[in-house]
């Protein structure tokens, strides 16, 4: 097993950021804001955020904001709660949260809460526990969690809990590791993790580790590096991370690196992308791999950024 080729991954992220007309950039056009969060968080975790032009990024983010307060995935794209969280997270990385009007962003999110406590993603109304997480995470980062009905939001999330201990995107929806991260993360931030059966959920989550050491997102599915984030962060939040083999998971993630050109793929020998590079590095961060800064499992931001937001005057 080789080591983490951190410097190669930094070069890979920087090169994708520059190549605006590359294949990957064209495919990613509609979710540039999420791509910015994945790439820039990876650079921060590897201690290389200072190689980026802060002013350029911040002014691009602000040009994606709409009058009603939400952010689009790129300039001229419709606002959505998905991109709004990424915009807030990137500004947090750069210690630039003060450039936004927090009340305006808050009003946009408050307007997306439904009567049953759930959240829609935008004006078109799709409901998903992903949006509950995003609303709670985003408002917490803006110190405005009291502006929504948190009790109802928590009740809705609990109504999406299944008999197997996992969570789905709506009540009755199949348990999926991505949705579990969202529900557990939201409950962690809301201070309501006591409502989760940690042994039952921990059992479901630790069963996601397959022979190769990688984690899958549901029973019978293939392992994928991104579940090193969705599953592992959830196990940490419910205090059951010792139920999987950390060593085997580290080996699986390192085996997914392109050691020549940088970047990490979903599984060994596949093509790399920024999404899986971020989740690989973030997974190694949760596994306390040397040279990678610690990341907070609930906010999905470096611990030093979260501490700056909540513990500095
Ligand atoms: C701040 C990290 C962070 C996230 C923001 C958008 C969001 C909140 C969370 C998304 C959670 C989610 C549903 C993740 C799953 C993504 C994924 C790999 C889906 C693939 O599902 P399938 O069914 O693949 O295509 P499998 O692996 O089941 O074969
Ligand atoms: Zn994946």
Automatic annotation (TrEMBL):
<dbReference type="InterPro" id="IPR045089">
    <property type="entry name" value="PGGT1B-like"/>
</dbReference>
<keyword id="KW-0677">Repeat</keyword>
<comment type="similarity">
    <text>Belongs to the protein prenyltransferase subunit beta family.</text>
</comment>
<dbReference type="GO" id="GO:0005968">
    <property type="term" value="C:Rab-protein geranylgeranyltransferase complex"/>
</dbReference>
<keyword id="KW-0862">Zinc</keyword>
<keyword id="KW-0808">Transferase</keyword>
<comment type="function">
    <text>Catalyzes the transfer of a geranylgeranyl moiety from geranylgeranyl diphosphate to both cysteines of proteins with the C-terminal sequence -XXCC, -XCXC and -CCXX.</text>
</comment>
<dbReference type="GO" id="GO:0046872">
    <property type="term" value="F:metal ion binding"/>
</dbReference>
<keyword id="KW-0479">Metal-binding</keyword>
<keyword id="KW-0637">Prenyltransferase</keyword>
<dbReference type="Pfam" id="PF00432">
    <property type="entry name" value="Prenyltrans"/>
</dbReference>
<dbReference type="GO" id="GO:0048364">
    <property type="term" value="P:root development"/>
</dbReference>
<dbReference type="InterPro" id="IPR026873">
    <property type="entry name" value="Ptb1"/>
</dbReference>
<comment type="function">
    <text>Required for male fertility and root tip growth.</text>
</comment>
<protein>
    <recommendedName>
        <fullName>Geranylgeranyl transferase type-2 subunit beta</fullName>
        <ecNumber>2.5.1.60</ecNumber>
    </recommendedName>
</protein>
<feature type="domain" description="Prenyltransferase alpha-alpha toroid">
    <location>
        <begin position="5"/>
        <end position="300"/>
    </location>
</feature>
<dbReference type="InterPro" id="IPR008930">
    <property type="entry name" value="Terpenoid_cyclase/PrenylTrfase"/>
</dbReference>
<dbReference type="GO" id="GO:0048229">
    <property type="term" value="P:gametophyte development"/>
</dbReference>
<dbReference type="InterPro" id="IPR001330">
    <property type="entry name" value="Prenyltrans"/>
</dbReference>
<dbReference type="GO" id="GO:0004663">
    <property type="term" value="F:Rab geranylgeranyltransferase activity"/>
</dbReference>
<comment type="subunit">
    <text>Heterotrimer composed of the alpha subunit RGTA, the beta subunit RGTB and REP; within this trimer, RGTA and RGTB form the catalytic component, while REP mediates peptide substrate binding.</text>
</comment>
